[in-house]
Amino acid sequence: GINGFGRIGRLVLRAAVEKGAQVVAINDPFIGLDYMVYLFKYDSTHGRFKGTVDIQDGFLVVNGNKIAVFSERDPKAIPWGKAGAEYVVEPTGVFTTTEKASAHLEGGAKKVIISAPSADAPMFVCGVNLEAYDPSYKVISNASCTTN
């Protein structure tokens, strides 16, 4: 799942689609579904999305894959588990501590990846310290969305 469909959230979805990872849910309380479609289709840096993007029965549909869309402000209220999201990327820049990001676990996520530096979550940088990752970690940071 992706919490926040701003610039980084949209790029996470693009990367997931390109790599074949399944995104089952997106939460953003500030962007409506119609605008999500528009913003995802057209990117001033990366160009137009080459696949299909539609709305069907309240879902965002990307290349035929239905993605549940929620508009919760409180991460505890996002039904990640019911949507089938095991991992949640947290790119809002709001929930950057372990305590705040752990709220996603209450919604049913199993792991949370913060896309910003964190004051207390273990941080990992590709090519630097990934070998230090411990699968028991529930909340981690990728240090900075511009680093990885």
CATH superfamily: NAD(P)-binding Rossmann-like Domain
Q: Order of strands across the widest beta sheet?
A: 1-2-7-6-5
Shape: globular
What name is given to the CATH topology?
A: Rossmann fold
- The unreliable regions are none
Descriptive account of the structure:
- The chain has five helices and ten strands.
- The two termini are 19 Å apart.
- Strands 1-2-7-6-5 form a five-stranded mixed β-sheet, with helices on one face. Strands 8-9-10 form a three-stranded parallel β-sheet, with no helix packed on it.
- With 148 residues, the chain is α/β, with parallel strands linked by helices.
- 23% of the residues lie in helices and 23% in strands.
- Strand 3 (42-43) and strand 4 form a beta hairpin.
- The model has no long low-confidence stretch (mean pLDDT 95).
- The chain has helices at residues 7-19, 33-41, 80-83, 98-101, 103-106; strands at 2-3, 25-27, 42-43, 47-48, 53-56, 59-62, 65-70, 87-90, 111-114, 139-141.
- The protein has one domain (2-141): NAD(P)-binding Rossmann-like Domain (Rossmann fold).
